[in-house]
Amino acid sequence: MEEPSQPSRRLTRLVKSPSAAVTVAFFVNGFLFASWTAHIPHVKEYLRLTDGTLGLALLGVPVGSVLAMLIAARLLPRLGSRLIVRVTLVGYCAAGPLVGLIRSATGLFLALALWGAFMATLDVSMNTQAITVERRARRTLMPGFHGAWSVGSFAGAALGAAGVAIGLSLSSQLLLLASPCVVIAGWLSLAMIPDENPTAGHPAHHGVGTSRRTVWLTIGILGAIAVADLLCEGAAADWAAVYLHSSLGAAPAIAALGFAAYSLAMVAVRLAGNRLLDRFAANLLLPVLASLATVAFGIGLAVQSVAAVLIGFAALGAGVSAVIPVIFSAAGRVPGINSGTAVALVSAFGWIGLVCGPVLIGQLADVTSLRLALIAIPVLTTLIAVSTATCRALRYRPDPPPLA
Questions:
Q1: Would 4 be classed as within a structural domain?
Q2: Looking at the domain assignment, is residue 3 inside a domain?
Q3: For the CA atoms of 83, 88, 90, 96, what is the dihedral angle to 10 degrees?
Q4: Exposed, middle or buried, 366 (CB in 10 Å: 0-12/13-18/19+)?
Q5: C-alpha span between 243 and 236 (Å, rounded)
Q6: Is the model more confident about 146 or about 211?
Q7: DSSP line for 214-260
Q8: What is the domain count for the chain?
Q9: Which of 90, 223, 236, 329 is found 20 to 30 A from 350 (Cα to Cα)?
């Protein structure tokens, strides 16, 4: 009997790899949603929506997401992340094309709420599965998983723009993209593993106590860090191009590079994050990155040159890139609470920050100026630096993996 070839053995290992299954789930989660963003102007025009009506319709995503996360916090301990990933993966891929079939603002809100609910539940369950895989591997994996999400978002945004360029409808595009995603990710999800007991291990090793008050205090602190982090991300996404174009006079093509610089720096650090966090403790690395973001972004605002601000946004992306992966991983290590419940609660906090960030900056800009409003960003990164340096839940280094 012939031995399987080297490529066949690699394919077999890939199909049976929980890490590969989680990586693809993260990629798909970012990929499909990002692919629809290029169609938003067309949807607005087709439905004849005003800016205000469109804004209200787009709130369907965060509303559906936060509600779903709170439900997922109760379901994950009972059903486990492996099953919920599979169910919500199918729902996420099926609900997307429905958005392109809507004919009213109310329908758009409801369709986005449904899609957001599946997306958020998939997000929480795949992060819970990632914690189990990371725990079993006894090495840092979470930044790499989130790096796959960022790469998926880039790929989805690019294909979405290509779809718009060739006149492909939103529903057709999402159907074409979702079909291979659900087949491949669903097939690989068979390799996912049962969630481990979140209270297993030594509490002292995790750096936090086990009393109910301590558990909820720790979750609250991690949630607050998530709020600050995603406030920065929301502000960068919505206001980078506006500030560069309206306040500094950059051409639209140059102004668009603000969030691109932020995103590229985030991807780069996340893809290198596994190695960085294996070498440096999270409570040392995160404060250093956040401090660099504070200094670079502050200089950009002070100098008021396009180049300096672009560097500032790139530094901001690098500075906050590893925060969410690390605090999700830390939430999964908190003893006395199910990993999925902890991740769902911290993630719900983060969504509040993501939604409120652009609004906060806009309100401050109305009262003062956009430049002064953006000072909120280095203030937040300073808070991130201090809180990640002092949070006991981040004082953790994984045990070395067992020898083969």
A1: no
A2: no
A3: -170
A4: exposed
A5: 10
A6: 146
A7: HHHHHHHHHHHHHHHHHHHHHHHHHHHHHIIIIIT---HHHHTHHHH
A8: 2
A9: 90
Query: What 8-state DSSP symbol labels residue 195?
Result: P
Are both 125 and 267 inside the same structural domain?
no
Q: What CATH number is attached to the domain comprising 169?
A: 1.20.1250.20
- Residue 269 tokens read as 């650090």
Residue 246 vs residue 398, higher pLDDT: 246
CA 317, CA 150: separation in Å to the nearest integer?
12
Distance CA 329, CA 143 (A): 9
Residues 294-312 have pLDDT tens digits of 999 999 999 989 999 999 9
Same domain, 374 and 346: yes
> Which residue among 159, 191, 223 closes a domain?
191
pTM: 0.84
Is the distance from CB of 374 to CB of 239 less than 8 angstroms? yes
Domain ends where: 191, 222, 249? 191
Q: Span 131-141, mean pLDDT?
A: 90
Separation of CA 385 from chain center = 19
Q: CB within 8 A of 113, min separation 6: which ones?
A: 60, 61, 63, 64
Looking up tokens 């599979």 gives 86
Q: Are 26 and 80 in contact (CB under 8 A)?
A: no
95 CB-near residues (< 8 Å, 6+ apart): 111, 114, 115, 118
Please determine, for residue 404, whether its predicted confidence score (pLDDT) is greater than 60. Answer: no
Residue 399 reports pLDDT greater than 80: no
Instruction: Tell me what pLDDT residue 202 has.
Output: 40
- Domain range for 290: 203-394
Q: Is residue 206 scored above 70 in pLDDT? A: no
**In this structure, what is the dihedral angle of CA atoms 171, 174, 179, 182, given to the nearest 10 degrees?**
-130
Structure tokens at 169: 């409808």
Same domain for 75 and 20: yes
